[in-house]
Specification:
Length: 181
Amino acid sequence: MTTEIIVALLTLFSSLVVAFITSMRVASTESQKLRIEIQQTYANKLLERRLDTYPTINELLSSFIKEIRLGPLSKNRLQEFRSQIELLDTKHSVLFSAHTGVVFHRFLMTLAILAEDSDGALEKRFADNEEVREFRHRIEEVELALKTDLGIYVVEFADPKKGFESYQAIVDTIAQSQAKN
């Protein structure tokens, strides 16, 4: 082989390597842009649905807190409230963040325990200011979780470089993020 052929082959090879590396970088950049766009679209759609739904839940919770302040709570009213909350949970729990889901579940368990009480037991329970304060605190936890999901208190932006391989990876990332807070 002559020197010119070797130089030509080396030049061809180096050009192919540079072209390959350049095309890989372009593909990686485009892929990252696409991932960011998908994440933004998902986040926007989720936020839109939450904005449509969460005010209804929050209004129900807020109204119930005011009812508790105004007077005794009957078993019928508690069961009616529980039914309304469970219906909203059934319809919209898919929109809850992991944290909101846990808080909402704890609240539903509290309602289930209270629903077992008779009118007299409820009256006695809510005559104790500490019990009322604890119950109101549970409701306020749910309200705060809903507001946090909407970004009213905390706005979290995803790391655009991070990709998710599964829904479980998204849940794990959210849990880690909330554990830091």
